[in-house]
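G., before I forget:
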Amino acid sequence: MNTVLLNNTFVDKKNNEIPKKLERMLRRADNFTRLCVNATQKILTPDINKLIKDISPEDIAIILATRFGPIETNFRYLDTIFDFGEQQGSPTLFSHSVHNTASGYISRIFNFQGPIYNISSYTYPLFSALFCALKLMEQDLAKIVLIIEAETKSILLDDGINRILKYNCQTNILQTYSYAIAWLLTNQNYITNNICITDFKLEERCNNLALSTILTKNVTITINEYIEKTILYNTTTKFTKCIEKMINNSDNCYIRFDIKSEIGYIYGKIYKNNINNNKEVSNETVS
Amino acid sequence: MNLNSQVAIIGWSIICAAGYSDKDFFETTVEQKDPKNCRQIPSYLFKTTLEYPAFFLKEKIITQKEVWEFINPFLEKNSLVSCPNRTVELLLQCLYTAIVDANIEPKDLKNKKVGIIIGTTVGSTFNNEAYYKSYRNGKDLNLIAIKNYLSSNLAQVIQSVLGVQGPCMVINNACASGTDAIGIGSIWLKSGICDIVIAGGADELSRIAYLGFSNLQLASKFPCRPFDIDRKGLNLGEGAALMILSLYKNCTQTKGFILGYGCIADAYHPTAPHPRGEGLKKAIKQAITQADIDIEAISMINAHGTGTMANDYAEAAALEDIFGDSVAIVSTKGVTGHCLGAAGAIEALWTVYALNNRLCPGTIGLKHKDPNIKINILPQNKHVRLKNKIGISQSLAFGGGNSCIVLMGKD
């Protein structure tokens, strides 16, 4: 059975308006949680809901991957300690400062009762989640997997990292930003405009740590023959946009992706519609 | 049962307040004495005005010369990691001991696919209060704090120390992280993508977590008393545990087996567990189904048993529904404290050790069982000889996570 991408979505500051029906449930939630819940809400279109309505909630898993998690919420919790004393720290902020709060919200709001995993990785959060999702479905521990990569902007981190870069005479600048990418995958045999993910490989070899893990400059994304060099931090959004273009612009096609850097490589193929007799997406389509 | 396709534990290591080795830890629980190591926070960890005791380790984690020799090449290669944080030190101490215990030459791992999956909570958070305070007040910043934070992904640290290739992940499933790390590691082995998996958890005692649990009114001013009518809450702890896993058919030695794994969400509340333990029940059933055994084969259960009322009732409800009062149940948090992301791994290791000894010691701190709890939770000073070698270790987490692994001792 192939793994099928049912739907994907990208949410950032511009389109992070929480639907009214969720406002009450998210009234205490931090930005990290709101982004993740909103991305989930957007992925569950009426068509998708129809498709998955017969799946038991216990067969729907959530994998949330991030580099820094709700780092700013942690600072807001510290603010309450510094301003009001140790006994007056905000329990609400503390409970939102842990990495798995957002996935707990998603589970509760959308009644997804399958396995929940929260992964942190400075290298490939989305691909680590994808890797984990494929193994989960292979072992029949889930029929549907929601994977999310999310970050929130941290001025403190931007400041610290760029000071370090400047000190080391490096010219590239890292700017964190707030976004959530969500993919919905299944191993079920739906008859639909399937986007199949095959031959996925994730090989990490972390010989050096520290800034190299998020600021690796020599990252090459090859989508078919189209090659782009980028910094690691931007690979996921660029890659997701390529897939969006494939979904929107091509009928029967596939893309072959190959992401290489000094800290590992990712390889895979994603097909649209029939796995056989597909053409490679043209370079123009994905560039 | 065809053992060849089962996931075997070929080596392990543990550090926690109850002992610096598997044997020490188990003997502490067998002694059944009231804990002497649940104390006020020492100044070498952090300063606090609060009076919630905790379980902690000595100031210096890595003291052996051979451990430093093992990790020094890694520190030199990563010149930015000038001073590994306490969680990284806990992890590396455990890594060294586990590799020795498994009779593995680190250089032999370079030809293998080695999966690394580590559970943590504090280890993935930027908890440097001094840095944040300076930033907030516009003072000079010590950038080493940022460098260390960006160098402390626990799975990547192990990958870098060993110089190996393979899947590499940190799991942040709060208090269930260690259990999930072992469960996911066993999935990787069964799916054939790894030759060896290093799985476990590590967490230091952090001031932020300490204050957070106090602010949530979950911490106790006394040593914790899981399932006791006089329970007052939990004590935090610190520690690490690692297991080196492989398929049994590829092993030359084994300490025990991971037979099954289940993970189910409550979908109920952001922090509290489902009061009837609905998610936990399903997770236990999933793990037992995956292990392909009958419920009657389970001879003991190492409960999450934090000593909070919500946890006790949820866990007891789930266990009563499935097992009635037929299975010996224990919690070890009365001697370790709640080690958060490391707890599941620490408890899984202890469970296999107990199964290998066919002995389940009682729950230290439990003196007067809550009459509303009907399960066979062993009180302090009551040991049970086990009929067979299969047991369960389970964890509950913030966010409604429930994780369970079915474990088997060796012959």
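The longest strand of chain A covers residues 3-12. Confidence is low (pLDDT under 50) at residues 282-287 of chain A.

More on Monday.
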